[in-house]
Each structure stands twice: as structure tokens, then as C-alpha cells.
Design a protein that fits this description.
By secondary structure, the chain is an alpha+beta fold. The chain has 2 domains: 258 residues, 4-Layer Sandwich (Glutamine Phosphoribosylpyrophosphate, subunit 1, domain 1), CATH 3.60.20.10; 201 residues, Rossmann fold, CATH 3.40.50.2020.
């Protein structure tokens, strides 16, 4: 296997937002596999900006390029793509939720087994990954990375099945949590999704060749056709035959469960132009603003989004309330996500580097700031002050999702529970004083469900994964048993 890589030290600017762990893309049988994979990863860049990697297969060899940084920094030149020959490839963009930000954790991860080589890329997190890792180490396994993806490679290696695809299925049936996973062997592209479909994964087609990726926007960028979502608990195996034809096999879940997509895909993570679970992300976010205006209307002169995540919801809020929408905050899209070796002074200026107040739209006005979510609240404090400094008469914050009370263990990088704003204040009034706003309101859980799915939450059978709001985790959390930051108490009534 040939491999090239690079690594830089970096610093995170946006520490007060939630982050998705990663995005995946894979294609089989297309002569431009690596280039198409790079384009697909570019479309998925919002899902992870720490690192990117692609593995291809050609002429009996796997080829790997893994780098710290953005896709555009490493996978746009011909020299790099020429080092990734072949008509089959998988790729990955990463934001770490498990494992350090170091090169050996960058995916796709690769292993050479007696049944042949296999590369794996996955989005999400195993809730029993630590438990399985300890068991594997106790039985002699040696780990090179701290990412839980490597657990799957070890389990594939230890499986007694004769084919790589059977070993893959055997391995993933033993992991728990939320994941969308791709594997590449010499002849196969394999896609798998967790039993309740927490993480999204779609199937597409370009020139008759199969594609799997995290979001439909990655299909759109290369002109591919959307076929369907990979079902929860499903494994799809696409294989190139000796005559060049491609066969597709679907293995359904042994014990089917209702799908429960992560609500934060709609609130924040997915790109607005994607369709997730058959629903337009943009429309869902706009609906959140509509519901928010119904629940927490306010007399004001202008509705201003906190860009970019708050923009669709702000549009919905403005249309439903009749208050004019204006771009009162301008985002600098060229700051980038990281600084190299920043000083403390630069760190303190983080928000001002990314956002500037548009004084002409704010001065002397009662402003409604619409944001998609609030995590720690530190960014909200700075933005409210920025709006006041620009001459706003009043500043009212409206959040297009409920309060976040609980950490996530399925692939979202969330702070410990005691670091979340909702858990640091006794009530909404205290929270509002901390942020410095004249009023503060969050969308209710029923309002969010109505915006995304068309009807309120059914407490007996929730249609989505919503534990960060409610405390009701959809699976057992084997790695977290006994930890104080796991909540079983529902806080549905504490929305403020």
C-alpha cells in the first residue's frame, strides 16, 4: 500500500458550537474515482474540517492520501490525485469526537488481512467502543490509533468468516451506537448504517456506478442521481465482477427497529441544500423559525440571523411574524476554521474575526437575533454585545431549537453536561442576564418535531433521536455506565 500524509498544529476558533464527527463518500467502478471522491468530500467539508483522507485501489494495490486540514488544501492538484489511481475509492472528512487530532487517527483506516486488504471510513461513534477495545487488548490486540474505527478492523481480522464482506457484517453486528460506515476491499464497496439510523447515509449513481455518501449535496456536486437512503440496520455490498459488471446485495437488519435520525442533522449539521431522511434541510430550518415565531413572538423592528446556521430559521421567523428580515451580521467566510500558533489576544478576538455588525441595519432598532442553537453561550454573549455596540435599542434572542441539557455519545462533539449553558443557570431569566439580552426564548421540543416531521413529539415512540434535549438516550451506553454525565431523567417540561 502506498501512503502519503501531512500534519499541522492548529487551534480551534469556534469552540462554542457543536461539531459533527465526519462525513464519508465512496464510489465503485468509475475511472475518475479519486477525483469524484475529492469533490464529494469538498461538498461534505462542513461535517469535518480537521483532516481528510482518500483510499483507492488499483492494480492489486491500495493507495492512501491522508492529511490534516481541508480537502481543498490537499486534494485539488493533479499530483495528489495521480497518487490515487483506480476506479474505486472511499474518502473521509474528520472532526474528532473520539481520539486525538493526530494523523494516525485520520481515516480511512487500512488493514491488510489474510482475506485481503480493507479500508474503513465511518461517521458517528460506538457507545461500546471502549469496552470492545479493552476486550481486544486483553486478548492481545495492538492498536495504532485511538479512533474507535480501528476497533472494527480488529474485529474483522478476528472474525472466522471466509469473505471480507461476511467478516465486516459480523463485526458491525457487535458494535453499538450511531454510525454510517463505508468499507473498500479489492472488489467491493460496502455501506452500513446503525440499527436505528442515527447517522445519515445515502446511495446514489453516476454513469451506472454506485455511490454512497453522508448527504445528498455530495451527489449534487458531481451530477449524480440520488437512489435512496441506506436503511437503518442495512448493509449494502456492491461488487465488481470479472466481466466488469457490478452486483448489489442488501442485507437487512436482523431485528428491524424504527428509524430515528439525529435531530441535529436538521438543526445544524447537514447542509441546507441536502435532503435528509426524505426532508429538505432548508425547509425544516425555515419551519423552525415559523414555529419559533408562533411560540415566542416579540415586538421588534428587524429580524437578524446569526450566520450562517441561523439564516433559514430567521427567514421563517420574519415571514411568520411580519417583521422585516435583514443581514445585520456579516460573516467573514475567509477567516477559516483554524489559526496556526495564535496569541491569546487573537484568541479573544475570535468572534469579531468571524462576525461583524452591519450598523446601518441595527442602529436605533429593536433587534431579534435568531440562532440555530446555543451550547455554552459564550459566543452569544459576544454577539449580543457586538449588536449593542452597533447601536441596537433592544436585543432579543430566539433560538430555533430547545435547550441542550445532555451530552451526546453518537458522534457529536458536545461538552460535559456541566459546561452546557442550560445546566449552569437555574432558569431562563438567569440565562438571559448572562447573555446580556433583553429577552431569550428557545423553540419547544414539540415545535421542533412539528417543524421537521409535521407533528409533535410522541413520548411513547419518538420519531427522532433527541437525547441532548430530553435526556432519553435511544440505546444503552455501555462505555458510560456509572458516569455522572449520563442522564436518564427527562427534562421535557423544562424548556423555559
Amino acid at each position: 500500500m502506498t501512503s502519503h500524509s501531512s500534519e499541522n498544529a492548529s487551534f480551534m476558533l469556534d469552540e462554542d458550537t457543536l461539531h459533527e464527527e465526519c462525513g464519508v463518500f465512496g464510489i465503485l467502478g468509475h475511472e475518475d474515482a479519486a477525483a469524484l471522491t475529492a469533490l464529494g468530500l469538498h461538498a461534505l467539508q462542513h461535517r469535518g474540517q480537521e483532516a481528510a483522507g482518500i483510499v483507492s485501489y488499483h492494480n492489486r494495490r491500495f493507495h492512501s492520501e491522508r492529511h490534516m486540514g481541508l480537502v481543498g488544501d490537499h486534494f485539488t492538484d493533479a499530483a495528489t490525485l495521480n497518487r490515487l489511481p483506480g476506479d474505486r475509492a472511499i474518502g473521509h472528512v474528520r472532526y474528532s469526537t473520539t481520539g486525538e487530532t493526530i494523523l494516525r487517527n485520520v481515516q480511512p483506516l487500512f488493514a491488510e488481512l489474510e482475506v485481503g486488504g480493507i479500508a474503513i471510513a465511518h461517521n458517528g461513534n460506538f457507545t461500546n467502543g471502549i469496552t470492545l477495545r479493552k476486550q481486544l487488548i486483553a486478548s492481545g490486540a495492538i492498536f495504532q490509533a485511538t479512533s474507535d474505527t480501528e476497533v472494527v478492523l480488529h474485529m474483522i481480522a478476528r472474525s472466522r468468516h471466509s469473505s471480507s464482506s461476511d467478516r465486516f457484517v459480523d463485526a458491525i453486528r457487535q458494535v453499538e451506537g450511531g454510525y454510517a460506515m463505508l468499507a473498500l476491499t479489492r472488489t467491493k464497496l460496502i455501506a452500513a448504517r446503525d440499527p436505528i439510523g442515527i447517522r445519515p447515509l445515502v446511495m446514489g449513481e453516476l454513469d451506472g456506478k454506485p455511490i454512497f455518501c453522508s448527504e445528498t449535496c455530495a451527489l449534487d456536486i458531481i451530477g449524480a442521481k440520488y437512489i435512496r437512503d441506506v436503511e437503518n440496520g442495512e448493509v449494502i455490498i456492491c461488487e465488481i465482477q470479472k466481466d466488469g459488471s457490478i452486483t448489489t446485495e442488501s442485507i437487512k437488519a436482523e431485528n428491524p427497529q424504527p428509524e430515528r435520525l439525529c435531530l441535529f442533522e436538521y438543526v445544524y449539521f447537514a447542509r441546507p441544500d441536502s435532503v435528509v431522511g426524505g426532508r429538505s434541510v432548508y425547509v425544516a430550518r425555515k419551519n423552525m423559525g415559523v414555529e419559533l415565531a408562533k411560540e415566542a413572538g416579540i415586538e421588534a423592528d428587524v429580524v437578524v440571523p446569526v450566520p450562517d446556521g441561523g439564516t433559514p430559521a430567521a427567514l421563517g421567523f420574519a415571514q411568520a411574524s411580519g417583521i422585516p428580515f435583514e443581514y445585520g451580521i456579516i460573516r467573514n467566510h475567509y477567516v477559516g476554521r483554524t489559526f496556526i500558533e495564535p496569541t491569546q489576544q487573537i484568541r479573544a478576538l475570535g468572534v469579531k474575526l468571524k462576525h461583524s455588525a452591519n450598523r446601518a441595519m441595527i442602529e436605533g432598532k429593536r433587534v431579534v437575533l435568531v440562532d440555530d442553537s446555543i451550547v455554552r453561550g459564550t459566543t452569544s454573549v459576544k454577539i449580543v454585545q457586538m449588536i449593542r455596540d452597533a447601536g441596537a435599542k433592544e436585543v432579543h434572542i430566539r433560538v430555533a431549537s430547545p435547550m441542550i441539557y445532555h451530552p451526546d455519545f453518537y458522534g457529536i462533539d458536545t461538552p460535559h453536561a456541566d459546561k452546557l449553558l442550560a445546566n449552569q443557570h437555574e432558569n431562563l431569566e438567569s440565562m438571559c442576564r448572562y447573555i446580556g439580552a433583553d429577552s431569550l426564548a428557545f423553540l419547544s421540543i414539540d415545535g421542533l418535531y412539528t417543524a421537521v416531521g409535521g407533528k409533535p413529539r410522541d413520548p411513547k415512540a419518538p420519531a427522532f433521536t433527541d437525547h441532548y434535549f430530553t435526556g432519553e438516550y435511544p440505546t444503552r451506553l455501555l462505555d458510560q455506565e456509572g458516569e455522572s454525565n449520563v442522564h436518564t431523567l427527562s427534562l421535557l417540561a423544562s424548556n423555559g
